[in-house]
Amino acid sequence: MYLVSNAWALIAGCADKEMQESIFNHIESKNFGTRGYNTNSNGFRAPVEKAGRIGLGSGSSPYNHAQSFYVRACCECGHPELAYKATRYILPFEEEYAPVAKTYAPPFAIANSYSNGQRFMHRVQFQYLSGTVSYVLRTVYNFFFGITYGYRGLTVKPCIPAEFGDCSVEFTYLGKKFTIHFKQTEKAEKTVIFNGKEWATKINENSGKTMAYFADEELLENNVIEFEY
Fold first, then answer.
1. Architecture, CATH, for domain 148-228
2. Does the reported pTM lie above 0.85?
């Protein structure tokens, strides 16, 4: 079970709902290990001819960039708790998920991967040498909070873990300031207020989450959005 291709099948929308749940079930049962999500459910025992560049290991370790793709897939399909679970294994600063005594790494350095080898179990590999850093940043604003820039406007489609509770974000888009207050609610129909007015919403067919669109010409210099999730 290869984490990357399955994550991207979910991100690209290639899988219907039945296949989505099958992929999630298989990843959770076959790829999840004690140090996060392994790139392959089983490692290669020997190099495979003509399969591409030979790597530095069996391919069965938790590779953080692959885990980041899985986080995105979880958000695209409406599974915020799975996304948050994977994110906590990527980040280096929670002792429960990245114990310094095992990783031998500072708690501020996002690693490329973690070792699954018996001699160096959970040891960090290639800290500071990872494109994961930028992808984790996207995880926060683009996938959890759902702030998505388009050609003619801004879409907000959050997939926020319950542990976040009520939370707020501030950012600048096209030189205009935004504050979004996300409010956790059990209501079936979520409400969005944009600059004091109730705003039109849609349900994202893939994630089942509420989303709203704000056209560029409707934006003010300072914008406030109240968004129930």
1. Sandwich (2.60)
2. yes
